[in-house]
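Milestone M4 deliverable, item 7.
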Amino acid sequence: MRRGGGGGGGGLHHGGAVARAGRVLRAAAAAFFHGYHCYTSVAGLLVLPFSAAVLASGAAAASSGTLRAVSARMRGVFDAAGFPPSAFFALLNAKLSQTVFTFTAALPFALTFLLLAKACVAAMLRPDDAAGGGGAARRRRAEGRAPVALPPCASVAGAYPALVATHLLGSFVMLSANAAVFSLLFLAFNGADLLGLTSHPATLALSAAGAIAYSVAVGIATVVCNLAVVVAAMERRAGHAALLRACVVIRGRVPTALALALPTNLGMAAAEALFQLRVVSHHRRAAGWTKLAPGVAGEAFSIAYIHALCVVLEIIVSCMFYRSCTRSDADELRELEPDDKGDLQA
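Output delivered:
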């Protein structure tokens, strides 16, 4: 089989980013259902506290004085920077304030339960060359087709420090990406003001361009930071070494990474919206959490568990994407060949 293109981008060169993302998603779904009991145990024991913290912080954000203070501070920064009053910046201010509040409230759970879950899932999907069984067996373990079992505590504990360092560096990178985009928006809007482009159509067009640039920059930074945590778990790299390795691995595959991030993030967003609709709205009508009916409390637990499953699926997708990026061309050709070839020997 011949495939077009050079070796600079690595991986499969035929097909588009959506086709490659579909292959990774199918492999991740197969791995999840193959080790269903192990992955659901990780979701219930490790990810569930993190998901509950995220949902609870989102529910408390609407009536939090801290959120209002953060929003007022950011509005003051936007006004001082000379950003025009528009619906785009009002929405950006609201979403950023809620993101900062939720991130801060759930940070202790992210540094403990979430990172332990990532280390656990990565250990289950990490190929072990010392385990023997030949190249085919290692490929089956890497693709999630071999028997799945929960990893030993020593393996998870050994990867945990690298994950913490990488997660904290990734948070700083996300902050830097937001600051860089805001700096560019500041230059663009003030340059337009100096050139006299202050009409409503010009401001609207510049705001739309700023929204696209912000979404692309934050999306790329997010997928790189998430992949860096997977690299830290798989390769035992930490901090900037894992981040640089993630940048090398993802080179030429950014559209695929963005396409892979969409389904799981939509699932988590749907769970958060369902929690707001079914639990938070009932809380507002009941005027207190102590008056929640047992059925509503059961719904809250179920939605938190659904959110946890989406988080576990996101981790599996990231691990399978990492495997697809680091897999060599020879491995891909062997994967396309049938496993049982004894009758075809010449």
